[in-house]
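$ run holo --ligand "S-adenosylmethionine" --emit tokens
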Amino acid sequence: MPNPPSSHFHRRLRGAVAARLNDAFGLGLDDIPAQPAKRGEDLLFLRRWLANPLKVGSVLPSSPALARLVAKNVKVGEDQAVLELGAGTGAVTRALRASGIQNDRLFVVEIDGRMAAFLRKQFASLQVIHGDATNLSQLLPVAWHGRIGTVICGIPMVNLPLSVQKRIVDACFSVLAPDGRLLQFTYLPVSPLPKGRLGLTGKRMGTTILNLPPASVWSYKRVEPEAA
Ligand SMILES: C[S@@+](CC[C@H](N)C(=O)[O-])C[C@H]1O[C@@H](n2cnc3c(N)ncnc32)[C@H](O)[C@@H]1O
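-- output --
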């Protein structure tokens, strides 16, 4: 007799959680082999979280399922590039590369020096910028201002005061193309950005329960000024 759908669902969910914990800490769960490279990446992430929990915002990198959901929602034109803020150890970067975005069309910004160094080692020729996203307009080469199709923000914005959120959001829209979008992923069940106070419209593009904890991707645009 086939398993009822809920039991199939629970087995898959348990498998995904076990695989993540196993990969991260080599717990030997469910006979899933731990991957030493992935474990090293997860340990670096955990150490940087211990050093700066509010800035890093999560104990583990995003899961492949969340990274794929982000990559699926990226829009980029022929003469445009993609910008990722708060790239961490490159979980989302990897999915962007796998979705066909080339290194010369991808910029990543990371404030943590050790994570930025890790990214440089992991992704040869990726354009890694070690810096604070609030200074985005000084960090991104001027030739790309106005030519960013999508900004992906992995920074835990909910931990920041409104004034800093505003600086980062304003910096993003100063480099986005007129039809560009800002993507933000979150563990919250509601919009991670206060849309009204930041002058944004936004909608949830999808949710994955195969992340620990479950996460959603939101897409934002600027509220168009009223036509005079
Ligand atoms: C939740 S982690 C996300 C990491 C990675 N994108 C992922 O999905 O696994 C947030 C990352 O944002 C970085 N970060 C926090 N504030 C930042 C800022 N102002 N500018 C650039 N990066 C920042 C942190 O160092 C950390 O690597």
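-- notes --
The two ends are 66 Å apart (CA to CA).
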